[in-house]
Every structure is written in C-alpha cells, then in structure tokens.
Amino acid sequence: MSEPIDLLVHSAGQLCLVPPHGGPQRGAALGDLGLIADGAVAVADGRVVAAGPSAELRARFDAATALDAGGRCVLPGFVDPHTHIPWMGDRAGEFEQRLGGATYMEIMAAGGGIMSTVRQTRAATVAELVADNLPRLARLLRYGTTSVEAKTGYGLETAAELRQLDAIMALHDSQPVEITPTFLPAHAIPAEYAGDTDGYVRYLIEDTLPAGAAWMRARGLTLFCDVFCEEGVFDVDQTRRILEAAAALGYRLKVHADEFAGLGGTRLAVELGATSADHLVSTPEADIAALGRGQTVAVGLPGTPFGLAHRDYTPAKAILAAGGALALATDCNPGTCWCESMQMVIALACRYMGLTQAQALVAATLNAAFAIGRGDQVGSLTPGYQGDLLILDVADYRQLGYRFGVNLVRTVVKRGQVVAENTF
Ligand code: NIG
Ligand code: FE
Question: What is the pLDDT of the chain when averaged over all its residues?
C-alpha cells in the first residue's frame, strides 16, 4: 500500500542531501553533498519524510503533487544567515564617492554611511518598512533563499530599533521566506552620543537591550544580539560588555568581527559561545585557531569586499585547516553589499575564498543554518528537515559558482509548497 504524502520531487539527476555531521560540516569534511543519482525527495506536513532513488520512492508513496525534475539538480533551499534587511532608501551616491576614492570608514566618520540609512529608517513607520522591504524578500526567494536572518541596526534608539523588529516579524508573516531576527542596536554610534561611545553602551545596556528582551519574551521568541566590533565603532571591551549583558537577558550572540581591523572580536565570540562570528577578513591567526576549537560558526561575506572593491576576503582555507565551521551569507545592506543572491555569493566564494562548488554549497545551506541556530531544521534534505528545496535549471551542481550574475534556480519549494517558479 502506498503511503500518502503531499509532494514528491523525483527524477533529479543529482539530489544533494547535504547531510549534517552531528552538527555543521567542519574543516576538511566540508563539502559532503550526499549525492543521490536519479534521486527523489518526499515531503509530508512540510517535512522531508524520505530521500532516495526515484524508482523506490515512486513505488512507495502516493503524492498529492508530483514534480518531475527532469534530470535537473535538486538541493536544499539556500539559507542566508546575515542580512541587514529591513532598511529605507539607498546610498548610490556614496558608491559614486567611493569610486572617486573615499573609503567606507571615512564616509561613516563624516556622518554618512550607516548614519545616512539610520536617518531614513528612523523616519519610517512599520508599514513603510514592510512595503519597501517586501520586494527584497521576493527577489531573494526567486534566487533560491528560503530562510534568512534579518538585523535591526538602522534605528540606534530603543523605539526605532523595536519598530525594525516589528517590521521584521511583519515581513516574516507576509511572505514565504522564514526570517530569523537579530537585534543590532550596537551597529554604530548615533549622533546623540557622538564622542561618547561608552555613554551609548550604557544606554544600550540599561534601556535598549532590556526593551528588546521584553519584546522577545512577549512573542515567545529568542533574538540574537549582534555588535559591530570595529575600529572607530565598538572596541573589544565595549563589545564584551554589550554581549555579556545580552547573554544575561537571554539573547543568543553574534559578532561583526574583523571586517576591516582584526581587533579580537572573533576570539571574543568563541569565548562567549556566540552562534556565529561574521565577516572575518582581517582575522588574526590566534582567532582562526580559536574557531577550530570552539562551536562558533565563521560566516564569510564575500559580497562585501567585492562591493567595496577591496582585495582581501575571508581566509576560508585557513579556517578549514584549523577545523572551523564555515558558512556563507550575502550581508545584504545598502552600504557595502546590496545583493540578494546567494548564487552570486557562491561564485565569489569559489574565486576569492578558494572554495570548491561543493564546499560553497554546503556553506550556503546546512552550515548557514547552523549559523542562525537552525541547523536541525533547514539546510538539508535529510528526513526530518523542512521540505525547503530548489530545482535548478541545470543538471550539475557544479554549474553553481561557475556561472554567475544569472539565476540558475528554476523552482523554489518551501515546506512542500511551490512558492516560486522562474521561466527562462
Ligand atoms: O556588515 N559593517 C557593518 N554593517 C554592514 C554595513 C551596513 C551599512 O553600511 O549600512 C556590513 O558591512
Ligand atoms: Fe553586516
């Protein structure tokens, strides 16, 4: 007797299972795709119930919907574990200034950069934030991202930061991409505290972080708390004070570390048991070694140096040689990297971080899910995981990364439902 299920995707020339290794795929073990030739995946109640050879699954299951992959590649939906969605406005004028020689940190020190987006975002209502940011989520879904992290950080005062959280949850509720929220009021020093970073840190610890904690308790959610640990922003000691206060309030932790200067933010992230440390461009050797010993996932954001026309990228090979867990993300934001495409990130990671396509694929799915604490839910097509998957328009996963700037995703499935279909 055949078992009733909601969806069977069959006849995948390559089915990429992306199996967990009792956690993320670490170090030299990164890149295990668990490939099944002529594979199929069965989904019921939004979850994978079986994955294996097409002939076997077609005989076993009676599917309400059957999708014939026609020999194409099927893989888990991409997970993007670092974005700065939602924001208002754009900074195309600053990009022009940078092309003329100004640096990102110079523009920020002069009151532009993040502060320019803060002025526009503070002025927006939740409804305006939602309306402006929905198209971004629609675009990243069409490019294959089925789960995403989204940060506040363009409010920099309690009420405006909470409005960003409300907008993130409204966005989560109004379209198919699942959003994991992160609280980032420690993204820059607002004009009101110019020259008094310690004063702003006190305000965060006494006012903003407790307000965010009350917000999460009221919704039964756990928020991540993130800090931009950087020269001229929050130093390591200030970052530690903010993150320790956040941990005591029940937040999980993330750090923007070593984007420009290697201050020790990555080592701190590992020491505090942060879920991820992100950017990691100027990471000192001792911090790379710490990643190999700890549980913190290293998140490479190669769209950012590319967006800034810099030459240095996350030292992925050294992180893997140390035994670290590496993930990839877009960093989608209006300043350094306005890019919604994990496919573009994979292409950059293959060229500038030295990853193979298989390593980049795992870093953009399973390991990315571990970077937002969801590695047991999404990022793999192993039974028990959510039925979030992509049918590519190509047969070979190695076309990912090799080809770039175009969309190779044909069909996007979220929890067993087709949510986007691209025609070429
Ligand atoms: O990750 N570095 C800090 N935050 C962002 C940039 C945000 C912005 O410029 O608006 C980043 O690159
Ligand atoms: Fe960022």
Answer: 98
Contact between 392 and 72 (Cβ < 8 Å)? yes
What would the mean pLDDT of 207-230 be, rounded to a whole number?
98
CATH number at residue 29: 2.30.40.10
Is 89 buried (19+), middle (13-18) or exposed (0-12) by CB count in 10 A? middle
104 and 157 both lie in a single domain? yes
Neighbours of 5 (CB within 10 A): 22
Provide the residue range defining the domain that includes 384.
Answer: 3-77+380-421
Distance, CA of 138 to CA of 143 (rounded, Å): 9
For ligand 1, residues with CB inside 6 Å are 84, 113-114, 117, 228, 256, 259, 304, 331, 333-336
pLDDT tens, 240-290? 999 999 999 999 999 999 999 999 999 999 999 999 999 999 999 999 999
Query: What is the whole-number distance in angstroms between the Cα of residue 321 and the centre of ligand 1?
Result: 28
* Residue in 80, 84, 184 to alter for ligand 1 test, most ligand atoms within 8 A of Cβ: 84
Quick check: 14 pLDDT over 80? yes
Q: Which of 106-110, 160-164, 166-170, 390-394 has the lowest mean pLDDT?
A: 106-110
Q: What per-residue string of b and e applies to 379-401 under the rule 16 or more CB within 10 Å gives b? A: bbbbeebbbbbbbbbbeebbebb
Longest pairwise C-alpha distance within the chain: 72
Residue 388 alpha carbon to ligand 2 centre in Å: 25
Domain count, the chain: 2
* Domain-ending residue, one of 330, 350, 370: 370
pLDDT in tens, 22-48: 999 999 999 999 999 999 999 999 999
Whether the bond between 86 and the residue before it is cis, its omega within 30 degrees of 0, is: yes
Structure tokens of 202? 């006190």
